[in-house]
Amino acid sequence: MGFRFSKRVKILPGVRLNFSKNGVSTSLGPRGASVTVGKKGIHGNVGIPGTGLSYRTRLDRPSGQSGGRTNGRAPVGDAPSSGASALGYIIAAVVFIGLIALLA
């Protein structure tokens, strides 16, 4: 098992910079619902604070899609899931409403 490192710095209410050994990312949103933007893409995060229960999904492309295809063709049965993208829009809406509530 290897060592892990992470540090979060609060910039503004609802805006955090996340530092790790793999790079820097930014999280936007209130506690329990946020959007994280980093070198691994854009992710929506929803959780129940204090419980350790959370859900994370990829927002910039379907979570089952890989970025390293060499022939440019999708494998058989690799159709994008409309349910995953609908959930992404719901998460983004929750985070947006939370940001508005924080700034109001």
Would you kindly provide a written description of the structure presented here, covering whatever features stand out?
This protein has 104 residues and is α+β, with helices and mostly antiparallel strands. It has a domain at 26-61 and 83-104. Helices cover 21% and strands 38% of the residues. The chain is built from one helix and six strands; from the N terminus they run ββββββα. The chain has one helix at residues 82-103; strands at 6-12, 15-20, 23-28, 33-38, 41-48, 53-58. Strands 1-2-3-4-5-6 form a six-stranded antiparallel beta sheet, with helices on one face. It is globular, with a radius of gyration of 16 Å. The termini are far apart.
What's the β-strand tally?
Answer: 6
Beta content comes to 35-45%
Radius of gyration, in Å, reads 16 Å
Write down the overall mean pLDDT: 77
Q: What's the end-to-end separation, in Å? A: 45 Å
Structural class by sheet pairing and helices: alpha+beta
SSE order, as H and E? EEEEEEH
Envelope shape: globular
Pfam families: DUF4236
Protein name: DUF4236 domain-containing protein
Transmembrane segments: 86-103
InterPro entries: DUF4236
Essential attributes:
single chain; alpha+beta; 1 helix; membrane; DUF4236 domain-containing protein; transmembrane; transmembrane helix; DUF4236
Topology:
Blueprint: E1 6-12, E2 15-20, E3 23-28, E4 33-38, E5 41-48, E6 53-58, H1 82-103
Antiparallel strand pairs: 1-2, 2-3, 3-4, 4-5, 5-6
Outline:
The protein is an alpha+beta fold and 104 residues long. It has one helix spanning 82-103, and strands spanning 6-12, 15-20, 23-28, 33-38, 41-48, 53-58. The protein has a domain at 26-61 and 83-104.
